[in-house]
Amino acid sequence: MPSTPRTSVPAALASSGAADGRVPAPPILEVVDVHLSYGTVAALDGTTLSVREGEWVGVSGPSGSGKSTLLGLLAALEHPDRGEVRFRGADLARKRRLDRYRRLDVGLVFQLHNLIPHLDARANVEIAMLGTHLSRTARHRRAGELLDAVDLASLAGRRPAEMSGGERQRVAIARALANRPAVLLADEPTGSLDPASAANVVDVFTRLHRSEGTTIVMVTHDAAVATAADRVVVLEAGRIHPAPPPPAATAPASAADAAPAPAERRTG
Ligand SMILES: Nc1ncnc2c1ncn2[C@@H]1O[C@H](COP(=O)(O)OP(=O)(O)OP(=O)(O)O)[C@@H](O)[C@H]1O
Ligand SMILES: [Mg+2]
C-alpha cells in the first residue's frame, strides 16, 4: 500500500481525533461549499465535507439527495459549478493530470460491479493495471494477490456470470485496489446483495480499513456499514445536515476542517 507517511496513517489514529491527545490526521479530501446543478435540479447545494487520511466516512440520505453526485465529484468524474473539491489540499479543478488522479489516486466500487463479462476474475483485476509501469507478469501476480486478499483466490479463473453477486462485488473491490489508491470511493456496494453477501463485502472493507489504513468514502443505507464506519454523514437536498459550523477565529483554516457536525455520528 502507499509508502509515504501521509498515506499510511493508521486508521485508529485518523479516527481518534484529538480527544486522546494525538494529532488528528490531515484531511485527504475536502468538499468546500460545492454547488452542482443538472439543468434546474440543484443536485448539490452548498455541500461541505472533510475526510481525514485513513478515515472511513459513510454517506447516507434519501434518494435524490446528491450522494452519487458527491461521489462523482470526489472521483473527478463531475465538476462543481461553484466551490472546490480538494485532494491533499490541491483544488482538483487546477490539477493537471486529472486522468492520473482518476486512475491511480482513487478506486471506485459501484452498486453494480461493472465487471467485463467475457474476462475471468483475474483478468478483470489485471485490466485496471494496463498502462502502468507494471509488466504483464507483475500485473498477473498482483491480481492474484488482490483476489487472495478478498478471499477469491480459488475463483480467479471464473467469469462474472459464474460467480455470486457478493463474489463479483469482491472482484470489483480487488480491481479498485489494483493501483493502491489512497482513497476508495464506493456507491452502495452492498445495495444489490443479500445480507450474507453484504456482510462479506463489509468485512473486506473493514479488514482493508484496519490493516492498510485505506481512506473510504461509502454511500450506503446498510446498517452494518454504518456500524463499521468511523462516522456517517447525512445528505439532504444537496447539503450535509445540519451544516458544519462556520469557521471561527480559533478554528482550522477552512470550514471543511471544522469539527464534525452534530448529525455526524462517530462510532469508532
Ligand atoms: N446526469 C444527470 N442529469 C440530470 N439530473 C441528474 C443527473 N444525475 C443526477 N441527477 C439529479 O440530481 C439529483 C441527485 O442525484 P443523485 O444521483 O446524486 O442522488 P442519490 O442521492 O445518489 O440518489 P439514490 O439514493 O437514488 O442513488 C437527483 O434529483 C437526480 O435526479
Ligand atoms: Mg445514488
Mean pLDDT over the residues: 84
| Beta-strand proportion | 15-25%
Number of strands: 11
Helix content bin: 25-40%
Class derived from helix and strand content: alpha/beta
Descriptive report:
- With 268 residues, the chain is of the alpha/beta class.
- It has a domain at 11-16 and 26-114 and 177-193 and 207-266: Rossmann fold, CATH 3.40.50.300.
- Helix content is 29%, strand content 23%.
- The protein is built from 8 helices and 11 strands.
- It has helices spanning 11-16, 67-74, 98-105, 121-126, 136-149, 165-176, 195-212, 223-228, and strands at residues 27-38, 41-52, 56-60, 82-87, 90-91, 106-109, 183-187, 215-219, 231-236, 239-240, 265-266.
- The strands form 2 sheets. Strands 3, 6, 7, 8, 9, 10 and 11 form a 7-stranded mixed β-sheet that branches. It has a 4-stranded antiparallel β-sheet with strand order 2-1-4-5, with helices on one face.
- A hairpin with a 2-residue loop joins strand 1 and strand 2.
- Helix 5 (136-149) crosses helix 6 (165-176) and helix 6 (165-176) runs parallel beside helix 7 (195-212).
- The radius of gyration is 18 Å and the shape is globular.
- The model is unreliable at 1-18 and 249-268 (pLDDT under 50).
- The chain binds adenosine-5'-triphosphate and magnesium ion (MG).
